[in-house]
Amino acid sequence: MVHADYIVKSSQKISHFLHRHEPPVLGGNIVILQNEVDVVTVCKPASVPVHPCGQYRKNTVVGIMEAEHGLTPLFPVHRLDRLVSGLLIFAKSAERAECFRQQIEANLLQKEYVAKVVGVFPEGEQTVDANVNFNAREGRSTVEVSNGPGKALPSGKQACTKFQRICTDGNHSIVLCKPVTGRTHQIRVHLKHLGYPIANDELYVSGDFCPRSSKGTSIHRETSLACSLPSSDPDNSAEADLKFGIDPMCTNCPNLAPVGYDGDEEGLWLHCVRYTGPDWCYECPYPEWASLDNVSGKKMKPDVPPEN
């Protein structure tokens, strides 16, 4: 500590310390599916981000894989939204990651997801070819389509997704989703565009939209890690101290608390099951909610037999 009139000398360093508690995540295990020489694949549980971002540093797939399995460095080949579960592929070297990147840029990869949607999804393959426009401030996407010849071109990025019903119980349907492109929330917003949104997707299932920044901050989870990290919004400290008490287990509290996450948050019924490349294929088991016997508690005959 020095006085305000102190003159910084050569080779001296000014340090700024800010303490936060990371947002907790659901306590599901990260299951290693395949551990090869240059590739590792895992089944990502919902609510855990893939890599450090925003308010997350330790509660990430990359962070947990390093802490619990000693696997580092890891290079994500693709990403999944925080609330989405399923297959994640990591390269163990920059060279292998670059090989995957080139295949992605050349459109040589096929991706498959399963979703549980509202209603009886139509039979046969359904294709949505509609631009997706992501609003970063609101944290949601919208579909933009052309209104015909002579009309203004739709904004957003070109996006295409193919869907096929696996089974239905009359109230919900399990749908196979094959995104041709990879836009933010593409599968979720394209399903909403068709009129069959993911059944537990609060962001798109109804017209009642509440921006994440205005949601409550009360949350209880099985796993919670604390860490110290730089912050770009120190002005929030006073407000956070008013809302949160001191954590008796933490020597650095009162803290800057995580904001913008509900206490009743759950994983989306959207799960990545397969990635296929020119000479490789990685798969992940179907989640419990996508079981043919678990849609409504009764056994149903599938329209499209699951491949794994």
UniProtKB/TrEMBL annotation:
Domain Pseudouridine synthase RsuA/RluA-like span(s) in chain numbering? 38-193
Q: Does the keyword Ligase apply?
A: no
Q: Read off the SUPFAM superfamilies from this record.
A: Pseudouridine synthase
Q: Which reaction does it catalyse?
A: a uridine in RNA = a pseudouridine in RNA
GO MF terms, alphabetically ordered = pseudouridine synthase activity; RNA binding
Going by the UniProt record, its keywords in alphabetical order are: Isomerase, RNA-binding
Top-level taxon of the source organism: Eukaryota
Give GO terms for biological process: enzyme-directed rRNA pseudouridine synthesis
InterPro entries, from UniProt? PsdUridine_synth_cat_dom_sf, PsdUridine_synth_RluA-like_CS, PsdUridine_synth_RsuA/RluA, RluA_PseudoU_synthase
Which PANTHER family does this chain map to?
MITOCHONDRIAL RNA PSEUDOURIDINE SYNTHASE, PSEUDOURIDYLATE SYNTHASE RPUSD2
Family stated for the protein in its record = Belongs to the pseudouridine synthase RluA family.
For this entry, the protein name equals: RNA pseudouridine synthase 7
